[in-house]
Structures are given as C-alpha cells and as structure tokens.
Amino acid sequence: MKTGPFRAGSIVAALALIISACGPSGTPTAVPSGSTAASPAGTTSAAPSQADVSFAPASLRWYCCLGTGEDPAQIPTEEKVAAGFGQKHSGSSLKIEIVTYDSARDTLSTQIASGNGPDLVGPVGVGGLAAFDGQWLDLGPHIQKTGYDTSQYDPAAVEFYKSDDGQIGLPFAVYPSMLWYKADMFEEVGLELPPHQYGAKYKMPDGTEVDWSYDTIKQLAKLLTVDKNGKDATDPAFDPENIVQYGFEPQRDDLRGLGAYWGAGNLAGPDGKTVTIPDAWKDAWKFWYDGMWKDHTIMTAAVAESEEFSGGGYPFFSGRVAMSLNFLWTTYGVADAGKDWDLAAIPSHNGTITSPLNADTFAIHKDTKNPDAAFAALSYILDDSADELLQLYGGMPARPDRQDAFFETLGKSEGFPEKVDWQVAKDSLQYADNPNFEAAMPKYNETLTILEKYESKFATTPGLDMDKEIEALRAEIQQAWDAG
Amino acid sequence: MTPLARREARQGYLFISPWIIGFLAFTLLPMIATFAFTFLNVTLAQEQPLRFVGLDNYARLAGDPQVWQSLGVTFRFAALWLPFVVVVPFLLALALNSKYTKGKSLFRTLLFMPYVVPFVAGILAWQQMLGDTGWINDFLRFLGWQRPPSWLFDITWIYPALVVMGIWGIGAGVIINLAGLRGIPTELYDAAKIDGATALQQLRHVTIPMMSPVIFFTIILGVVEVLQYFLVPLVLKNGTGEPGGSTLFYNLYLYKTFFNFQQMSYGSTLAWLLFAIALVVTVVLFRLSRRWVYYAGER
To answer: Which residue of chain A is at minimal alpha-carbon distance from B260?
Structure first.
C-alpha cells in the first residue's frame, strides 16, 4: 500500500505546530492581483511565486468539490476566479465544474475511468488525496522548470504533500477545529460561557470549578436541551419527542473525525494491516450514541437531516444547537446561526485535548493533457487568488504571514457577530491530531463505506449494544483489508 | 444461392449492420472484456502490475459479507415490491377498463403523468414528503397517528417508503395492462355470461388466463428492474446505504466497487454474478410459465 501524501501523520501535527508557532509578521502584505474587495485593506501581496513561463494555450477543467466549495454562495466567486485565469493568460481558459461533495468521489472516479479526468482538482483535503492515491501529478519537475518559489512556505508544510508519487500538492489552507457555541442560549439559562482559553476551568451553576471536559459538556448539554414546553433534559417532565433546542452536536461527517475530537488515532495499527480502533474513538462513539438515544441531547439522523434542524448544511446553522464541534470551514454557513455565536476551546477527554485538523490543497490529475498550463493554473490559484479563495472557504492560510489579515477580513463577513474570538482558532492548531484521522489506511474508500454504514446505523437505531457493534465494525473492516 | 438472393441478403445485412455493430461494440465486446477482467487485477490506479489472478476474485466474492448483505437487501425489497408492481397495475387497469368508471381519459392521464416526471426530481420530491416532518407524516398526525414512522431513517420503514415511491410511477404498467385487457376478445365474455359466469368467475376464468402473457411480461420486467435497482437509493441516500446499510442494494454495491473503490476486476466479478442470478431467475420463470401462461396463438 502506498503511504500517500501523509506518510507520517505526525507531519500534519508538525504542519500545525509550525504554522501556529510562526507568529504573523508585522509586515503588511499587498492585496494580490485578482482579489476582490473582501481582501484586507492596506495589505500587500507577495510577488507572484512563479517565473514567467510560456505554455501552450489550453482549456482547462477545474474539478470541485472533494472538499468545500459546493455552496451556491461560493460558486460566483469560484467562477470569477476561474475566469480571471483566462484574463491573465490570453488564449487559455479555466472552467470550474461543481460536483456536490456527496457524489464528488464517485463522479471523479467515473471521469477518470472513462479517460475524461479533469486537469485541476480542489480544494481537496487529506482524505480526498488519499481516496485517489496514485492519481496525482508530480509537481516537482514543474516547480523546477518554472522556478516556482516554495520558500514562501515552511519546508515542513511543503514536505507534507510529498508522497511516493512525488510532490503532489502545495500548502494552501488549514482548518483547525473549535467548539462553536451560542452565547444567548447559555445566558438564557444563567450558565457561564464556555472557556476560550485552553486549559481554563469552567464554573458550574453551583459555583464549583471543573475541568472543561466532555463530562462537563454532557452536563451542560442536558441543561441546554429544551423541549417545546421549556423543560430541559434534566427535568423529569422533559419530552424527548418534541425537542426545540439541542444542547450539543458533534462533527458527525466521519466516524473517524468524530472520534478524533476525543483523541488522535488511526484505524491502521503499527503494522499497517491490523484494524485497531483507538479507545478514545470508542468513548466518543458511545458518548454520541448515548447522547442521541439515552440523554436526548444530540440529534438522531432523522432530526439532523430534517428541514427544521439541518440548517441547510450543519445543525449548528439552524440556530437551534447550543454547542457544536466543527472545523473552521463551517464559516461558509455559520452566519445563519445568528449573531450570538462565538468560539471556545475543545473539551478534553481523559486529560487530553485534541483539535482535529483538515488541510486543503489543489492537485493536478496525472493524466492531464496540459500539465504546463495546469501548473500555471495551480500557481494562479495558490498565489493570485489565494486570499479570495481562503476567505471563501474559511481556510486559514498555510502561510503564517497571511493569517492575521485573513481573520481580520473573515471577521467582517456579512452576518457575523461583531466580535469573534479568532484567537481560539489559532490556539487550536497546538492541539492538532497526530496522527491525522484522515491519514492513509488500506482499502481507503471501502473502509469509508463500512464506516458510513455503521455511522448511519448508530444514528438511526436505538437499543444497540455499542461494544458489540464496534467489534462488528472492526471485524468487517479487517475482512475488507484482508481481502486483497 | 441465386445472385438475386445474394443481393437481397447483402442488402439485409447492410440494413441490420448498425445494430450488429452497436451490439458488438457496446454489448458483446464489453461483456467479453469484463469477463476477462474477472481473472485479472485491474484497478483504477493499477498500482500492481497487471496479472492473471485465476479465481481469486470469485473466491473473494464468496467470502465478501457485503455481497450477501446487499443481495439480502435486494431480495427483501423484491419480496415486498414485486407483488405490488404486478398486482396494482393490473387492478388499476381493470378499473380503467370497467364500463362503470367515469372519466377514464382523465384517470389514464393522471396515472401516466408521474411516469414522465424526471426521475430524480420525483425522488427529491418524495424525499421531502416522506421526511419526519414531511406532508405525509403531517397528514398522519392529523389523522391521529401521534408517532408516524420515520420512513427514511428506520430500517423497517425504508422498504415500504421505497415501494410507495415506486407505485407512484407505475403508469406505464397500467397502460400495458390496459392494452392487454382491450385485446381480450369480447366473445369470450359473451360466452361466459351465457354459461352463467359471475363477474368474479369471468375474471378468474377469462380475464386472468387471457392476461397471463401480460402478467408474465410484467413479472419479468419487475424482476429485472429490482435486480438493477440503483437510482432511487443513489439519489435518496447519496449511495451511502443509509439507514444502516438497508439501502445498499446489490447494484449500488456493484457501482461503488467500480467507481468508489476503483476495483474494476472485482466489480466485473460482481457484475457477472448479477448476470448469472438474472439468467437463472429468468430461466426458472420461463420454465414455470409453461404451466400458467396461455398464448392464444400458440400451436
């Protein structure tokens, strides 16, 4: 099995640590060419990072969205960025194809299998790159040929995208995780707001100071889950069939990600062939399951996908969830949650804090017919359009010198509260999961399908014996890995 | 062969050549290719060198729990769906063919209209209607059912939900049955009435035997459709098999093996298993049809 672009999941953590350790420079950066007014005023961009190299005019296809980018509100900006490439390079064009995330992998597989693969793919995360391991162009020769300046990035960040296939990506965006919360809901029931500083204690209603942990979250979630009669989940008269506000919502896109909030890990054991489910992940899944079916403080699948609570994306966007764990990229839709949300520290589990990290890049399909033009488009996106796209995707720049300006502009987004504590996002990088939960594992896509099946089962079926189910999950994945 | 006969034969072959070319290029050759793939190790990325693997893919198929689970899903759905797809269009056609039914043209049109609605749009509309807070549950609550089913999120109710969606689009089946009913010679009914047959007896001894070829045709189409059932779970649940794997039909698993897991050889093996199942079921149905299907023109 190829190790993929993250052969040491520790490189992800190193990436996060380096980005967080390198403080923002005091030197303002210019607004790059092609950026919109959303770019911070008074900033200057770095000079374009590639030497002028001519390439044969080409019509290029930009495939989105193995990661973020599908939201209708994002598409006009993406199309504008794509059109900007044609304006910059006369005779060439870049056309973006939007495929919803849910079907993006299948559609891309179909295109590649039929010999109709796109040129450029992105934004794509660690998982997306792993799902198409072996399909990406080695950018090394093009970096050399064009003199592209990789020194603008930290070497570890560049190294992060090296795989057995070569340099398959360049750093673009990182998305740390935080606890997103609705301050009004806390204030309404007289609860102290969650701590923003990592390591800080929390004061309970009775005055006791406790660790900011998932045990605390569980208690708060009960107080913040309310039925239509105004009873919370601690009240004997609480009606779990008519809940109007939920106390807690984990990040449930992926069982691995959900588990990673409790502790870092990877399904592949040290030998790379044995399935080992980290204990922290088992604890997380049980917490989630009990939250849905016993405490009723977390939505079941039926509720989470209902029009009333889905928020058109994530339940927190509905404005009916008091606390939610999620990545920075949820800024794309969080304005719908109201104007009282803010960011807090991720809780600890057994004394350990973990803030799972997503990282995005753009990659070129190895069978592109126009590798030179595709690399020019990649450079254009990473340099000329980076500020614009990072704002759009809510991606923290991988380049530390751009982070402060990024948050300053992000904070001015329409519908956002006047003051959001973005420092929490920067601090969260210190606790990035190592190994990253999306790191390589055997039979990547098949394993994801099995995980999806069990995730759905947990979210739709009460009365399960979770220990038995988790063991069944482990056995099924092991069988898939052993099948050859 | 005379020159004229030869010329006629040449012309005949010329006219059917487009079909022959299409059959060879798009059916026979791909079938041969996929059969060859079942003995190789073809994947999208082709990380390993291409090689002959013998019966490894078939051995893997035999031990793959997902294959048997997805076949179970398919057969469970078939057991519920096939009776509906055979009986309901027949009953509706009977009603439309009755002299007592008023507004036949209107009903015919209304029954057929869902068939022309774009399939995906129809599924998305049903997704909203069958949601926990959708119109159907709102109506059931209005009728007094306080905790109506979670149609799309309960592994028990998902199959009835799929059947309901399927019944909505049976317009074509109704038209086929109606055409069959209209083709029954009225003399048979006259003769039956003279012999004192009641309406039910006419149904049993005239209508159903004369309709048996159409019913058989509907059964065959229904079996093929259920074995190929794919688009509804793909659109409704994004191909995830939710809830809890209950919509991971065999054809969907086959698709995922090709385009999600990128395993072309193993996917080809699954495809050939599907072909074998369809062939066996069809042969059995044809053999059984000799006992109950009556062809008026048969000698």
So the answer is: A106
Q: How many domains does chain A have?
A: 2
A156: domain CATH number? 3.40.190.10
The number of angstroms, rounded, from the C-alpha of A63 to the middle of its chain's C-alpha atoms is 18
pLDDT bin (cut points 50, 70, 90) of residue B228 is very high
A326: β partners:
A178
Mean predicted confidence (pLDDT) in B192-212 = 92
CA dihedral for B165, B168, B174, B175, sign (positive or negative): negative
CB A328 within 8 A of CB A394: yes
Of A330, A305, A321, give the one whose Cα is nearest residue A456: A305
For residue A42, being part of any structural domain is answered with yes
B244 touches chain A (CB under 8 A): yes
Does the beta carbon of A276 lie under 8 angstroms from any beta carbon of chain B? no
- Minimum distance, in Å, between the CA of residue A453 and any CA atom of chain B: 5
Residue A271: domain span: 177-353
What number does CATH give the domain B58-292? Answer: 1.10.3720.10
How many beta carbons lie within 10 A of that of residue A41, not counting itself?
Answer: 10
CB contact (8 A) between residue B261 and residue A105? no
Residues in chain A closer than 8 A to B248 (CB atoms): 453
Helix (H) or strand (E) holding B64: none
Q: Region A73-78: what's the mean pLDDT?
A: 94
Task: State both tokens at A38.
Answer: 């959303």
Question: What is the widest separation between alpha-carbon atoms in chain B?
Answer: 81
Residue A123, preceding peptide bond in cis (omega within 30° of 0): yes
Using CA atoms in the order B101, B102, B105, B107, what is the torsion angle rounded to 10 degrees?
Answer: -70
Q: Does A460 touch chain B (CB under 8 A)?
A: yes
- Count CB-CB contacts under 10 A for residue B81: 21
Confidence of residue A134 (pLDDT cuts 50, 70, 90): confident
Structure tokens, B35: 């059969």
Tokens read off for A102: 């849910």
How many whole angstroms separate alpha carbon A418 and alpha carbon A423?
15
Residues A200 and A340 in one domain: yes
- Contact, B232 vs B163, CB < 8 A? no
Instruction: Name residue A257's amino acid.
Output: G
Residues A83 and A211 in one domain: no
Contacts of A307 in chain B (CB under 8 A): 128, 131, 133
**Interface membership of A239 toward B (CB under 8 Å):** no
Chain A residues with beta carbon closer than 8 angstroms to that of B133? 306-308
Q: Are strands A93-98 and A59-64 parallel, antiparallel or unpaired?
A: parallel
- CA B216/CA B222 separation, integer angstroms: 10
pTM of the entire structure?
0.81
Contact A376, A53 (CB under 8 A): yes
Cβ within 8 Å of residue A333, ≥6 positions away: A71, A311, A312, A313, A314, A317
Sign, Cα dihedral of A50, A69, A178, A278: negative
Residues A149 and A285 in one domain: no
Q: Do B242 and A483 touch (CB under 8 A)?
A: no
Q: How far apart are alpha carbons B283 and A113 in whole angstroms?
A: 34
- Distance (Å, rounded) from C-alpha A325 to C-alpha A348? 12
Say whether residue A452 is in contact with chain B using an 8 A CB cutoff: yes
pLDDT digits (tens, 9 = 90+) for A186-234: 999 999 999 999 999 999 999 999 999 999 999 999 999 999 999 999 9
Task: Give the Cα separation of B272 and B257 in Å (integer).
Answer: 13
Single residue among A376, A394, A410 that ends a domain in this structure: A410
Instruction: Give yes or no for a contact between A382 and A360, defined as CB atoms under 8 angstroms apart.
Output: no
